[in-house]
Amino acid sequence: MRGNNVRVLVVGGGVAGLATVAALRHWGATIDVVERAPGPTDSGTGIYLTGNATRMLDVLDLWEPVADGAVEITRQRSANQGGRRLFDIDVAALWRGVGPCVSLPRAHLHRAMLAGVGDTPIRWGRQPVALAQEGDLVAVEFDDNSTGRYDLVIGADGVNSTVRRLAFGGQAARSLGQYAYRWIAPRIDAEPFWSVQLGRGRQFLTIPISAEQTYCYYNDGPVADRPGWREELAATFTEPATIMLKALDHDASTLHAGPNQEVVLDSWSRRRTLLIGDAAHATSPNMAQGAAMALEDAVVLASSLATAGSVAEALRGYEARRRPRTDWVLSQTHRRDKATGLPPALRDLVMRRLGERMFRSNYGPLFAQP
Fold first, then answer.
1. Cα angle, residue 342 at apex, residues 338 and 346 outer, rounded to 5°
2. Is the pLDDT of residue 224 over 80?
3. pLDDT band at 201 (very low <50, low <70, confident <90, very high)
4. Four-CA torsion 160, 166, 168, 170, nearest 10 degrees
5. CA–CA separation, 304 vs 18, rounded Å?
């Protein structure tokens, strides 16, 4: 099926939405994009992209601008909260033949993807307030009182999706009992290594994202913005925890905090309305697959639309093809969260003996094309 005379609305101007625009740009459809944020921003922290994510950026012709300035991560190191090594992974070797693993500022990724779809206008500061099926079209009312009718509406608007609320009976994301703090600190280690220290149900992670910056992530308990979390982090974990926290004394504006949530739905579509990315299947961040799954979604959706005989057929084929893979990621994130919640002595023993094997098992199915 060609996209001629097909009107598509993409709700969301983040990774999932921009990847969808890039994937569909040669299909022939008329694509409108709305994004509730008032405009592009340089705020945000960092992001780690595994090999299956960078492979999809290459498919979308977005890899070169993203790679410019990104840090290639060659090794992942896991230690306990006292700094004792549990296991290392040569991720460059693990993902060889798939794609490199890289880290970079989120703002850099967003700018590069925006540049890649620069000929597609985005209506910033806009979002739908009502969706209604009218025959084979979706009637959309926006928050500026404008309206439109579309052959396909794609909700690529994240874990707290407006499209999911409007079209899917208000099904909300569910809490994982984790509250995460993310911030940017100076880079102090020349080695391009991803490093994590594991506490009881908590993790402290550092990843270099540029020549000067480190992305820091602390996964706390369920209490939102708990007083004293900084003191507890410093007391629980070895260096570089204290050094990384000092960055907040100089510039607390880089701190982003919020709950980790997941989205589990029986179906991702309601007639001509489809959810993709975190709007459809957000998971715990412990596998760093949020962006990867969104990028894969976009590529597979474009393929399904191009080969199907109708939009309805394409959406059915798309979900049948994608769900086994996203379900795998969901199940593995549950296993990994459960493992980190084991009593420390047992967890350390398991991780030292089986950590590398478990890691390879987690990611193995993702080496294949989606």
1. 135
2. no
3. confident
4. 60
5. 18
Task: State how far the Cα of 27 lies from the Cα of 17, in Å rounded to an integer.
Answer: 16
Q: Whole-angstrom Cα distance, residue 76 to residue 195?
A: 6
In which region does residue 84 sit, left (phi positive, over 0), alpha (psi from -120 to 50) or beta (all else)? beta
| Cα separation, 42 vs 55, whole angstroms | 25
Lowest mean pLDDT among 98-102, 243-247, 251-255, 362-366: 251-255
SS3 278: helix
- DSSP string covering 78-133: EEETT--EEEEEEHHHHTTTT---EEEEHHHHHHHHHHHTTTS-EEET--EEEEEE
CB 259 within 8 A of CB 180: yes
Compute φ and ψ for 135, nearest 5 degrees: 65, -125
Reference 118, options 33, 29, 7, 6; nearest CA is 33
Looking at residue 68, the DSSP 8-state letter turns out to be T
The enclosing H or E element of 208 equals strand 202-208
Parallel, antiparallel, or unpaired for β 75-80 and 193-199?
A: parallel
Beta strand pairing call for 137-142 and 128-134: antiparallel
Show the domains of the chain with their CATH numbers. 7-173+261-367 (3.50.50.60)
- The predicted pLDDT at position 182 comes to 97
Q: Once rounded to an integer, what is the mean pLDDT over residues 96-104?
A: 98
Q: Are 158 and 14 in contact (CB under 8 A)?
A: yes
159-195 pLDDT per residue, tens = 999 999 999 988 889 999 999 999 999 999 889 999 9
**Does residue 127 register a pLDDT over 80?**
yes
φ and ψ at residue 147, rounded to 5 degrees: -135, 165
Run of H or E including 12: none
Q: Indicate the DSSP class of residue 292.
A: H
| pLDDT at residue 244, rounded to an integer | 97
pLDDT value of residue 171: 85
C-beta separation of 105 from 213 below 8 A:
yes
